[in-house]
Amino acid sequence: MHLDSSSGLVAYVITFTVRPGQQDEFLGLLEPLLDAMRNEATFANAFLHRDPSSDYRYMLYETWTDEKDLAEVQIHREYRQAFWRALPDLLESPREIQRWQPVRSDIRPPQPLSVTPDCAYD
């Protein structure tokens, strides 16, 4: 789907380099934050990725429908604070943040699961 510049959408790409041995704590703080973000009215989507060549690098892609709300309301939410307070101890270097304007979105809807006789359960 093509998006025009007046759509109001804004995307952020945030790269984290986690200290060795801190991945579980990092994810343990980030995953509840992502779960809470999902319920925000101006939240569009988020995708968390791990670098296939490094267990310590993560990339978070998030899209929001209202950048002003994100800056003035969302980043101040209480559920974000524990994660942000912990970052200096969890990260090898400061996170990298890039702002992007979405131009196009292509997401394939989930396909229904089908059971074939070959994999039927007894």
From TrEMBL:
Tree of life domain: Bacteria
Protein name per its UniProtKB record: ABM domain-containing protein
Source lineage: Bacteria, Pseudomonadati, Pseudomonadota, Betaproteobacteria, Burkholderiales
Residue ranges crossing the lipid bilayer per the database entry: none
Region (Disordered): 102-122
Domain ABM, chain residue ranges per copy: 10-98
Organism: Pollutimonas thiosulfatoxidans
